[in-house]
Design goal:
The chain is an all-alpha fold. The chain has one domain: ABC transporter involved in vitamin B12 uptake, BtuC (Orthogonal Bundle). The chain has a two-stranded antiparallel sheet. The radius of gyration is 19 Å and the shape is globular.
């Protein structure tokens, strides 16, 4: 049980960070399907810069900068250029997946993986027995994740910025009448989302692991998007959904270790995705609430100057 809990926290942290990014975008009326691309870009940039400079801090800062730049590009495409939000998001994901694989070969002349000895610090790594073993090997980002979710809740639900963002997502025409620029608010939300995706990618590559691998996100960005819907577009709800998916992933990982050979490996690997499908079905029971963001999404179909 202790091992399952430890694996759950480790697997859930990147999902929760990226799901929180999705909440910011959704509150602005944007269905952000580019989370996967930003997440893997953050993972690659963190490893590449950390391995070159020997500093994981510089790696994370570089990842945040690159992901925010891609988020600004995404905003420019769906805003001033008036591109379809869904197609542009999928394009951003394709750029992230293909671009990192290309950069790995072009810069390091290798395919598959890039290993590094630079990892995030683990505050409780000295604990070897007792209940503390559950969290002893977790990086500092895992510890900071609950604080980030709490900060996101305060910003979105208890600040002027959050109220303006909600107005832009739900009633953009009324927000414009009140002197709030929907375009600028969407840009700010996407920049925050980019930074959070970079943190999620960093935790995945130098927190839980010591390397970057092609397609290492393996659909986690899309699962995080599902967590946003399953969590009713609330930062805490999305975090709890991400924790649930982390538990599903932990069950799958532990099952590969403990289940006998009579159970096909493919069956074990599909467990997290089956639970994700079930969660999507349950989330569909609250589908009507998506109408709240319909006005913000519909406005993005037209150029916003």
């Amino acid at each position: 049980m202790e091992q399952i809990l430890a694996t759950t926290f480790r697997s859930a942290a990147p999902l929760v960070l990226v799901a929180t990014a999705g909440v910011f975008a959704f509150r602005a009326g944007i269905f952000h399907l580019g989370l996967e691309g930003l997440m893997i870009t953050g993972a690659f940039t963190t490893v590449a810069v950390a391995e070159t400079t020997g500093s994981v801090t510089l790696g994370i800062l570089a990842a945040i900068g690159v992901c925010m730049a891609l988020s600004a590009l995404y905003w420019w495409v769906i805003g001033p250029l008036g591109a379809n939000v869904i197609i542009a998001g999928l394009g951003l994901t394709s750029i992230g997946l293909g671009g990192t694989a290309f950069a790995l070969g072009a810069i390091y002349d290798r395919r598959g993986s890039l290993f590094t000895d630079v990892v995030l610090p683990r505050p409780l790594s000295g604990i070897t027995s007792g209940p503390g073993v559950i969290v002893s090997e977790h990086s500092i980002l895992v510890w900071l994740t609950p604080l980030i979710v709490l900060a996101a809740w305060i910003v979105l639900r208890r600040s002027r910025f959050g109220l303006r963002l909600a107005a832009v997502g739900e009633y953009p025409f009324a927000a414009r009448t009140a002197g709030v620029s929907p375009s600028i608010m969407r840009l700010q939300a996407l920049l925050i989302a980019g930074a959070l995706c970079a943190l999620g990618g960093a935790e995945l590559s130098v927190g839980a692991l010591h390397n970057f691998t092609e397609n290492m996100t393996n659909g986690r960005g899309f699962i995080a998007f599902v967590a946003v819907i399953f969590g009713a577009w609330h930062p805490i709800g999305a975090a709890l959904a991400g924790l649930f998916f982390g538990l599903a992933d932990a069950i799958g990982i532990q099952s590969q270790i403990n289940i006998t050979e009579r159970v096909p490996r493919e069956f074990v690997l599909m467990i997290p995705f089956v639970l994700t499908v079930v969660a999507v079905w349950l989330g569909g029971l609250w589908r009507r609430r998506s109408l709240e963001a319909e006005a913000g999404y519909a406005e993005l179909k037209e150029p916003d100057f």
